[in-house]
Task: inverse folding
């Protein structure tokens, strides 16, 4: 080989060699595999209040640059299936649990055995929304107020079933407390989510229900469901003409408002948690999300993880003596 030929061969190699490693960005992504989607996990079927919140957040996160955001509904076992799913997920910030407070605050007081411990297994990322709750009936029922229902059920104590979305939570104990206050044998009947509960309520298969306002507000507005009363000590802005249960003489629902928060598995890097916290809070502050949640009867909060942890601790202190006094234990 002549020196001229050798120079030409080396020059050609130098042109090819860097090209073999300087792949286009799309080819590099393809070589490393698709991006891991961000999964928002909800322990109820589609159609309920928490599912609505999850889908609103997913939309805003996509708009903020997340290529893939999936809402995964994993109902069952009073939301424990969803909690355990996230508990065992990789601690990389790509699997996020959206949960009400009760499974993380009250369930540890009522279940003899749980696979999870909120302090050990989860990092609180952000407080997302306050969730007023309501007591409702089908629109074709003969009672139009809570007082009417109380008179009706006193005459029919065998029909004192009250539908709710899970046992062992705040609404469960509120129903028990209401029964004790009124001297009625109110029996909580659990459903797998807000949508199947409302189906039975509208169909007349359960005479009364209690659930998040967001799950029933539009049906109330359309005349299919009649909201008889709201929880808490003040009337709800979305239902200014509907009294509180406290006004109707029932105090068991004074602390029955719920709240939704976001959690990731323990071990998730702090910088990943901070980024997710900021993204969720930013999403909740958008006018679109605030408007959609308000229309549904939810109040966007957008508080950091440290505040969510404080609120969990406060709720534990409130509910522990009540649960202990009830003697209730969950067996499912």
Result:
């Amino acid at each position: 080989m002549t020196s001229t030929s050798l120079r030409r061969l080396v020059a050609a190699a130098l042109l090819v060699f860097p090209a073999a490693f300087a792949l286009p960005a799309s080819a590099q992504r393809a070589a490393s595999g698709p991006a891991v989607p961000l999964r928002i996990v909800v322990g109820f079927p589609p159609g309920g209040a928490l599912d609505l919140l999850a889908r609103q957040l997913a939309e805003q996160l996509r708009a903020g640059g997340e290529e893939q955001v999936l809402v995964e509904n994993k109902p069952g076992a009073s939301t424990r299936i969803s909690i355990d799913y996230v508990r065992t997920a990789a601690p990389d910030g790509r699997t996020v649990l959206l949960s009400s407070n009760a499974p993380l605050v009250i369930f540890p007081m009522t279940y003899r055995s749980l696979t999870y411990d909120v302090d050990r297994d989860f990092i609180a990322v952000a407080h997302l929304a306050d969730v007023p709750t309501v007591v409702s009936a089908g629109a074709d029922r003969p009672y139009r107020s809570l007082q009417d229902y109380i008179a009706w059920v006193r005459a029919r104590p065998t029909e004192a079933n009250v539908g709710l979305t899970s046992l062992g939570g705040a609404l469960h104990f509120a129903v028990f407390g209401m029964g004790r206050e009124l001297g009625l044998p109110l029996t909580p009947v659990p459903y797998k989510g807000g949508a199947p509960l409302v189906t039975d309520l509208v169909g007349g298969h359960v005479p009364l229900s209690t659930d998040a306002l967001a799950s029933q507000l539009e049906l109330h507005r359309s005349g299919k469901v009649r909201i008889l009363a709201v929880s808490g000590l003040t009337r709800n802005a979305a239902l200014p003409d509907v009294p509180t249960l406290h006004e109707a003489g029932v105090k068991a629902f004074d602390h029955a408002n719920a709240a939704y928060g976001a959690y990731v598995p323990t071990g998730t890097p702090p910088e990943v948690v901070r980024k997710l916290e900021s993204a969720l809070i930013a999403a909740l502050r958008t006018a679109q999300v605030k408007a959609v949640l308000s229309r549904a009867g939810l109040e966007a909060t957008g508080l950091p993880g440290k505040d969510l942890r404080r609120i969990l601790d406060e709720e534990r202190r409130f509910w522990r003596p009540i649960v202990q006094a009830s003697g209730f234990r969950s067996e499912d």
Summary: The chain has two domains: 38-131+258-326, 133-230. The chain has a mean pLDDT of 87. The chain has 14 helices and eleven strands. Residues 221 and 227 are 9 Å apart (CA to CA).
